[in-house]
Amino acid sequence: MAGLELLFHSVAPEIACPQDALVCYLHWTLIAHRYRCLGAGDQPGHDEKKSEMLPAGWNADKDLYTLRYVAKDDAHELLVKGIMMDGSMIFNVLNPKTKQVGDLTVKVTDYVNPEHLGAFDKVYKNTEDLQSQVVHHILSLFDTTRERADTKEVPRREKNPSPPNPPDHDPLWIPPRHPHGSQQPHWPDPLGPFAVGGEDLDPLGGRRGGMISDPLRSGFPNPVIDPSSGLPHRLPHGAVPPGARFDPFGPPGAGRAGPNPDHLPPPNYDDMFM
Fold first, then answer.
1. Does the residue 209 lie in any domain?
2. Alpha-carbon distance 69 to 40, whole Å?
3. How far apart are CA 196 and CA 192, in angstroms?
4. Is residue 220 part of a domain?
5. Strand partners, 93
6. What is the extent of the structural domain holding 28?
7. CATH of the domain at 119
8. What is the pLDDT of residue 149?
9. Residue 252 forms part of a structural domain
10. What is each CA distance from 200 to 126, 134, 185, 247, in whole angstroms?
11. Which domain of life is it from (predicted)?
12. Is residue 183 part of a domain?
């Protein structure tokens, strides 16, 4: 804690309460992190200079401490206010330029011994914990060295950069779902006992597709597709272009016999010879 002892002895006659000693420690922590004090109060005074010492009137109000600081490189200004409330000190820190804020609340007697305010070797306790809290809750929010490092950081290269597009590349071109030369998906056996309902459970899994019957994938060899099935007259030649997707009006196959009149007998009808 180099410098804290000299600072403490320079203001020892003015330290009259534990919160005075706590504000003195906070002031030293800011000075150790390349900040300089401009003065006390909210508004700047005449002929202010950067100083490592506490300004005149810094502890005039024992319930409200107001100090202003500036970074050594003038990158940040801090307005620090310490409010005493129920044995605890609440530090509120504001950057007037960026409106960024930070705060820290500590119990005074956890870090200051009120019975030894005049003895530097006994007045402070748990200093490592106090310093870590000040750095974490206040100084880390206004770290000028970290911001300078971030601005100078070189952007990282991508691990797998995409290759450049060829000169004739069309950004609106959509590649086909199944390129030429790729194999068609394997269609399961429609007569398999465990295949029932699989298409409905997984409609996007590359299967046949739910309750829609496709005669080309019916499982029977070389099915005959007749677009005129179910019509009283045949469609004119060329009505269905070759390769077009077309749902026939009737079942596949030409010249099929009609249904048997006794295919479905009336209810409660048991005379099979009628």
1. no
2. 9
3. 8
4. no
5. 80, 102
6. 4-142
7. 3.40.1000.30
8. 42
9. no
10. 69, 63, 17, 21
11. Eukaryota
12. no
Contact between 92 and 101 under an 8 Å Cβ cutoff? The reply is yes
DSSP string, 195-233: -TTHHHH-TTSSSS-TT---GGGSSSSSPPP-TTTTSSS
SS3 236: coil
Whole-number Å distance between alpha carbons of 123 and 102: 26
H helix intervals, 110-243:
120-123, 127-137, 144-152, 198-201
Tokens of 44: 């700047």
Instruction: Taking residues 194-214, report their average pLDDT.
Output: 58
Q: What is the pLDDT of residues 43-99, one digit of tens each?
A: 887 778 899 999 999 999 999 999 999 998 888 899 999 999 999 999 999 998 888
Tell me how many domains the chain contains.
1
One-letter amino acid at 81 equals: K
Encode pLDDT of 141-152 as tens digits. 876 554 444 444
Q: How many CA atoms lie within 13 A of 19 on its CB side?
A: 23
Cα dist from 105 to 29, 100, 130, 158, 252, whole Å: 16, 18, 11, 43, 84
